[in-house]
Amino acid sequence: GAGVSQSPSNKVTEKGKDVELRCDPISGHTALYWYRQSLGQGLEFLIYFQGNSAPDKSGLPSDRFSAERTGGSVSTLTIQRTQQEDSAVYLCASSLGTAGTRGYTFGSGTRLTVV
Amino acid sequence: RKEVEQDPGPFNVPEGATVAFNCTYSNSASQSFFWYRQDCRKEPKLLMSVYSSGNEDGRFTAQLNRASQYISLLIRDSKLSDSATYLCVVIGGGTGNQFYFGTGTSLTVIP
Question: Closest chain A residue to B86 measured between Cα atoms?
Fold first, then answer.
């Protein structure tokens, strides 16, 4: 696609429920990142996928968080047994290749609210 | 210690003013540097890359000082539309190819 697409754009869920967030990166982009941003805070790295390599999961805050990237394209971030502190905007970004001079492009995010 | 640190501001400047932001990074092996802009409740968008030789894009000038490990962004002739949060981003030097974001500097340009 022309840009990074994320769905849903907004999600309200009850505490304890599981949620799935989807990211469809720019076609041909091999690198995909998940970040989250709490209200008024900076971006917190969650996980990074690069091609067929094992993902860098070092930013996942707990074992309730997991992510997959199928076929090197679409990625799903799953949060199990959601807690109120999981409320944030979850941003996905993709880039062409590895570290380079082009930065990466963000999707518009999924705003998750846990009530 | 944080990988990237920025003064959160806020910076409130009148239209037409010149304003500069600095950002320091901790890992001397860092390789690439960027400035992103984030409008309220929107995703960050790439503003410009930062090169050792410095680079300019219209009213915006970005510079890198490797010796002191900081990058800067200068905005001349500020416009109301420049009001946003400016994030500095550092890549490389850590594990993988993770981008390290500063927490952002808030700028408000006042009429």
Answer: A42
Q: Which of B97, B103, B105 to mutate to test the interface with A (most CBs of A within 10 A)?
A: B97
Mean of per-residue pLDDT scores for chain B: 90
Min distance B44 CA to chain A CA atoms (Å)? 7
The answer to whether B46 contacts A45, with C-beta atoms less than 8 Å apart, is: no
Q: Do A101 and B32 touch (CB under 8 A)?
A: yes
Closest chain B residue to A42, measured at CA = B103
Nearest CA in chain A to B50: A101
Residue A52: predicted pLDDT: 83
Mark the ranges of chain B whose per-residue pLDDT is less than 70. 1, 93-98
Please give the angle made by the CA atoms of A14, A15 and A19, to the nearest 5 degrees. Answer: 70
Bridge partner list, A110: A90
Give me A38's structure tokens. Answer: 């709490």
Kindly state the tokens that stand for B81: 């539309």
How far apart are the C-alpha atoms of B76 and B60, rounded to whole Å? Answer: 7
- What was the pLDDT predicted at A1? 53
Among B6, B19, B4, smallest CA distance to B107 is for B19
In what side-by-side order are the strands of the sheet with B19-25?
B4-6, B19-25, B70-75, B60-65, B55-57
Tell me which residues of chain A have a pLDDT lower than 70. Answer: 1, 98-102
Asked if B95 lies within 8 A of A58 by C-beta distance, the reply is yes
pLDDT value of residue B29: 85
